[in-house]
Amino acid sequence: MSMTAIYLCPQAVLAEGCARGFDPWRKGRDTVFVLRWQGELKAWLNSCPHLQVPLHYRKDRFMSADRQRIVCHAHGALFMPDSGLCVLGPCLGQSLRSQVLSVDERGGVWLAGQ
Ligand code: FES
Known about the structure:
Elements: E1 6-10, E2 19-22, E3 32-37, E4 40-45, E5 70-71, E6 78-79, E7 86-88, E8 98-99, E9 101-103, E10 108-111
Antiparallel strand pairs: 1-10, 2-3, 3-4, 4-8, 5-6, 6-7, 9-10
């Protein structure tokens, strides 16, 4: 088990209501996504609680068209951006798995060690 934090990006690139996918563990696909919601940065595993598949259909497309919910594009499940709770869809009542972030003094966003 490594406790090493992994650098993701400058926090300035994470605009309000926008999400970005990252591949911190070099899996060749985005396994984590980060979202700024009401000013706060949130990080979630990119794995739907319904079938454990990635949520997005195209790079960085994690949000609904109205930008109010996180959406799984496989079957349309909707999740609350603040809690990760599924509020509509086949995994209703289940949650995305949150990841811990930190921001350094220069505004760099880091994924905490696992
Ligand atoms: S896999 Fe996400 S809603 Fe079915």
